[in-house]
Each structure stands twice: as structure tokens, then as C-alpha cells.
Amino acid sequence: MNGVTTMNRKVTRIGNSLGVAITDALKQVGLGLGDDVDIVVRKEQGEIVIRKRVTVPEGFDPRFFDILTKNMEEYRETIEGLKDR
What we know:
This is AbrB family transcriptional regulator. It comes from Effusibacillus lacus. By secondary structure, the chain is α+β, with helices and mostly antiparallel strands. The protein has helices at 23-28, 63-74, 76-82, and strands at residues 12-14, 17-19, 37-42, 47-52. It has two domains: 1-52, Pemi-like Protein 1, Chain: D (Ribbon); 54-84. A hairpin with a 2-residue loop joins strand 1 (12-14) and strand 2. The protein is globular and about 40 Å long. The model has no long low-confidence stretch (mean pLDDT 88).
């Protein structure tokens, strides 16, 4: 496979909240208790993306990653189309 894993889970009640247990998925990408993540909600596509938080290397303007992320989201389809060329 190409590094993509599909898992089926049910939304369950966790305390007063709703949640999905994804421990196996977190382990696959090296995330553990206390790690920071970014959550991107793509409402129109019905997607929620959880990814490791990117730390800003010394000398970089933190806005660089905000602009990069915005452009990657805006041109996502184009970028994905280029990867197979």
C-alpha cells in the first residue's frame, strides 16, 4: 500500500463529550499523550484531519507556516494531481 491505512470506528461518548478512539492511528504517526496536534475541518468534504503540530525552526517567521498551510489547502487538488506525474 502507499502508506494509507483505513480504520472503521464508532463515535462514542467520552465523559460529557463525543469522541473516537484512534490510539493505533496515533501510534502509526508517532503521536502520544501530551503531543500537540493541529485539527483541520473540511466541512464540505466531510473530513477531519489531525496532524502533528509543526514547530517553527529558529529564524522562520511563524506566519510562514500559516501562509503555507492556507495555500496548500487552497490548491490541494492541484498539488495532489502533480504527485503522480
